[in-house]
Amino acid sequence: MGNPSPPPQTPPTLWDRSRQVAVAAILDTALRLFAERGYDETTIAQIAKEAGISQRSLFRYFGTKEDLVCGDQEALGELLRKTVDAQPADASPWDALRAGFSAILGADHTPERVLQISTLILNTPSLRARSLEKRLRWQAALVPAVEARMGIPHGPLPDPRALAVIATAFACFDTATELWVRTAGTTDVTATYDQALTAVRTTP
Q1: Does one domain contain both 175 and 82?
Q2: Whole-structure pTM over 0.85, yes or no?
Q3: Which of 104, 142, 170, 175 is deepest in the core (most CB within 10 A)?
Q4: Which of 42, 70, 98 is at the close of a domain?
Q5: Does some domain include residue 90?
Q6: Which of 81-86's residues contact partners 24+ apart within 8 Å by CB, and which partners?
Q7: What is the pLDDT of residues 130-161, one digit of tens each?
């Protein structure tokens, strides 16, 4: 999705890298079990046993079974917000949001892994509900930045115009992601997002 300006990143420490390796190994195990047995039928105890760790150790990395799939949504939401904030002052709210989506698309995983996880979320009602809940928090956090780019003073209540812009951008992003999943990754998320947003903004 273009060339967004990402916020400054702090180089990962040795502890960060070790944690990333452990998280990746646990996630590999969990996704394999979910594929073999189903998400709802797989327990945390089974995942921990297959990964060769205790349940207590697993919970140090993931607070819940849903977190295994949905990941650190708070961190992704913060990356989205910071990327939107980091765009040039003359960037429109649409362009700033587009840059934010681009930043989070491959923030944690390879495209293949993102497709695997997205497919599981879309096909599992409980995960889809959890993802939607957190995405709504992302949208709320973006309101001040979008209001500022629209020249709207930030007040005690969010401006409906800013809310509409954010909701529209998210709807187009979700549409593009779902089509990408339904076509097993053969469509281009960026191109589909742009097509959807153009249709919304130009259709009489």
Answers
A1: yes
A2: no
A3: 142
A4: 70
A5: yes
A6: 81/138, 81/141, 81/142, 81/145, 82/7, 83/4, 83/5, 83/6, 83/7, 84/142, 84/145, 84/146, 85/7, 85/145, 86/5, 86/6, 86/7
A7: 888 888 999 999 999 999 999 999 889 999 99
